[in-house]
């Protein structure tokens, strides 16, 4: 009986530690997808001057849309006639409920909605360029958190599971 409980606590510590580390690395993946998303928008706007609905239709087929699942939803909303600012804000709000990104990261996405919704192409391009730089800073910060807190929390949970298992036995 004690052996079962101690093994269960050990497994619980491992699972909690790995899940915590996964959440930190998930943020890095989401931010990298967001940087790709902004880069694709910049390329589409600067080379083809694509309209917003067509832009999101193209982006919804891009690999970043798998991670940033709000992108296809924005494309669907725009196809149904919803205005861009409302469609983008609603879809990002839904995405925020399941994302590992921080409020600072979502502030960048909020700015992206304002920038993409601008009517002047030069304003859009300069704004998106700035967003790419801001996202790069957030990615570096997130990578450092994975290295420090992610590994630390995983180790703490695993050691807690080991300690609890030893105390029971």
From TrEMBL:
Species whose genome carries this gene: Merdimmobilis hominis
Pfam families: Spore_III_AB (PF09548)
Record protein name field: Stage III sporulation protein AB
InterPro entries reported in the protein's UniProt record: Spore_III_AB (IPR014198)
